């Protein structure tokens, strides 16, 4: 570099030779060297990010979400790359699905590494502007009591939902907790066409939803606090996951429907569908509890005592994109784990999704996973299969050949939970195919 810059210096200043003993030449050269080095560094750094763009040619019947799953990116990322709004795409359309910037840290090809795990925090609600916004937005929500322990939840004076409290049930833990069945039913066609899943999964989730509730359903009386078409439970983290998924995949809508009303979530993000240390956050703008931000159980308690805030969730989950977030979250939490779980039958191991693979069999898997969790569903399935094989004098090596209908019947015999038995009986008499 020294000789390269020296020759350039002599050419620019028309010098036949360079005499370092002459102070003016030496100072001029030092200044020239600094300028040349600066220009070289800036031109090099301008090319340190190499961009690699991936494209997808849309096929007939494909949805944005199905494409995002294929390339492991978010829907909002595809929308941003292609400058499109909404979810309308057409066959033959060429979509950018990813742009990868590959940083080059030095000329000797040394590599830099950074952890993919990052902490996603809440809005800085300590800022007076945000607190004022939360207060003003919550003033739009209201509640007026009607009759027979029922209340109308309102938004800007218009009725959103009619909820009830003081529920008489063996499951009641909090008398002041509300129940609302909702009006946004989870139809399999919506799950299939809008959310982008195959019809077998769509039918299974629709069946599970028929036992749980609507997209805008609420339950705060049984001690857990749950919301949505499969009742995402706050106590065991499902509601927190749903909020984290929504924040990741629909950030604009999440801010509009949740953050601006003081509902938020914080978590560690590993990738677009894996999160840990999730905390649901509810803001108490008037500090009635002595805290500004309430987390998890404290947040659920605050929501239960301020019934009008249930209108935030009812209003949000009547939005098509946010309903799709419920479906997508349900697949990650309840469908994939149970389908991919390994059933240990004696010395043999079977994938649950292979043992039960008909429409009705998949519905049984998903419904048990929603009701019992994937671990609880796995244990019950193993018990039921062993019971069926033993009662028919067959070896454990024949577990994969049991008919799905016989497994569902065995689940009814193996379970001591009357709710599980009732759901499996309902499945046996449903129109879902066992073949």
Question: Could you explain how this protein is built, in words?
Answer:
This protein is of the alpha+beta class and 435 residues long. It is 44% helix and 18% strand. It has helices at 2-12, 23-45, 64-71, 75-82, 128-138, 188-193, 199-210, 238-249, 251-257, 297-305, 310-316, 320-339, 352-355, 359-391, 404-414, 418-428; strands at 49-57, 94-103, 118-120, 141-145, 150-155, 158-164, 179-180, 218-219, 226-227, 232-233, 263-271, 274-283, 293-295, 342-345, 348-351. The chain has a 4-stranded antiparallel β-sheet. A hairpin with a 2-residue loop joins strand 11 (263-271) and strand 12. Helix 7 (199-210) crosses helix 14 and helix 15 runs antiparallel to helix 16. The chain is globular and about 100 Å long. The protein starts with a helix and ends in a 7-residue tail after the last helix. Mean pLDDT is 84; it is low at 1-5, 39-51 and 100-114.
Could you name the key traits of this structure?
435 residues, alpha+beta, four-stranded antiparallel β-sheet, 16 helices, 44% helix
């Amino acid at each position: 570099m020294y000789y390269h810059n020296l020759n350039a210096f002599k050419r620019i200043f028309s010098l036949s030779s360079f005499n370092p003993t002459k102070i003016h030449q030496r100072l001029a050269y030092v200044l020239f060297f600094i300028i040349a080095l600066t220009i070289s560094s800036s031109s090099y750094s301008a090319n340190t990010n190499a961009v690699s763009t991936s494209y997808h040619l849309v096929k007939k019947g494909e949805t944005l979400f199905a494409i995002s799953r294929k390339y492991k990116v978010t829907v909002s990322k595809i929308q941003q790359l292609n400058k499109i709004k909404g979810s309308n795409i057409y066959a033959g359309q060429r979509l950018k699905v990813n742009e990868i910037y590959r940083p080059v840290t030095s000329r000797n090809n040394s590599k830099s590494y950074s952890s993919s795990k990052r902490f996603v925090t809440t809005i800085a609600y300590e800022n007076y502007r945000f607190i004022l916004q939360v207060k003003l937005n919550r003033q739009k929500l209201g509640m007026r009591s009607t009759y027979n322990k029922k209340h109308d939840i309102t938004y800007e004076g218009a009725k959103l939902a009619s909820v009830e409290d003081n529920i008489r049930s063996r499951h009641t833990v909090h008398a002041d907790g509300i129940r609302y069945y909702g009006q946004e039913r989870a139809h399999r066609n919506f799950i299939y066409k809008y959310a982008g899943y195959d019809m077998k999964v769509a039918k299974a989730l629709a069946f599970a939803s028929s036992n749980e509730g609507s997209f805008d359903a609420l339950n705060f009386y049984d001690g857990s606090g749950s919301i949505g078409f499969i009742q995402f439970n706050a106590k065991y983290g499902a509601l927190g996951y749903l909020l984290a998924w929504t924040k990741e995949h629909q950030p604009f809508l999440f801010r509009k429907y949740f953050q601006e009303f003081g509902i938020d979530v914080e978590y560690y993000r590993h990738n677009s569908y894996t999160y840990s240390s999730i905390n649901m956050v509810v803001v108490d703008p008037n500090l009635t509890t002595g805290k500004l931000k309430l987390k998890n159980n404290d947040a659920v308690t605050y929501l239960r005592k301020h019934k009008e805030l249930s209108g935030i969730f009812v209003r949000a989950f009547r939005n098509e994109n946010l309903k799709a977030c419920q479906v997508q979250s349900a697949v990650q939490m309840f469908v994939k784990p149970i389908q991919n779980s390994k059933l240990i039958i004696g010395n043999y191991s079977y994938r649950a999704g292979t043992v039960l693979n008909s429409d009705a069999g998949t519905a049984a898997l998903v419904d048990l996973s929603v009701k019992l969790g994937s671990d609880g569903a796995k244990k019950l399935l193993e018990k039921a299969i062993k019971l069926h094989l033993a009662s028919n004098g067959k070896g454990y090596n024949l577990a994969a050949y049991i008919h799905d209908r016989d497994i569902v019947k065995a689940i009814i015999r193996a379970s001591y939970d009357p709710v599980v038995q009732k759901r499996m009986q309902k499945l046996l008499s449903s129109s879902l195919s066992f073949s």
